[in-house]
Prior knowledge:
Layout (H helix, E strand, L loop, with lengths): L2 E3 L13 E3 L14 H4 L2 H31 L1 H4 L5 H36 L7 H46 L2
Antiparallel strand pairs: 1-2
Amino acid sequence: MTYNYVNCNDTHSIQSKLLTPTTMETDFRIRPKSDYLHTASWEELYILTKHWLSDMNFFKDEMQFLNNLIGRYFIWMAEKDNFHEAQVITAKIIELDKTEEALSAAIKKHKADLALLMEKAFTNENESFRREHVKLEDDLAKFTDTFRKVKKEVFDFSEKAIENDKLHHLLRP
């Protein structure tokens, strides 16, 4: 994936240092080509981490919606022909939910640690902390990719249920 710098007149803002993707690939990291994560200030990393938490809250809401969608068509899904596919999709949502909780907890801890770093509470773990930041960003990118795939599966499966339901309504006298 290639990145371009965002044009921004305020050189002190984080937006001037973040990059936006120029291609639509499944790499969801917001990582510049340069060594940004090794040179960014703690404040800039803190702002980025706050954005991650916002994303995780969005994913949590979306997963609730997916669970509601699955619940809405559970009877159709429980039919013999659809049961296995419904089980697989439901298991993926449960796994995503567990991953979301663990990743959110790790990001919250990371944000709290960044707050301490901004207060200069501890500074001798600079490199290991930045490696942790990179790992969290990679984990978030993987989670985002997996989430989008599972969401598509749920929508495709629900679409079949809706079409089947419409067909039954048309066939009823």
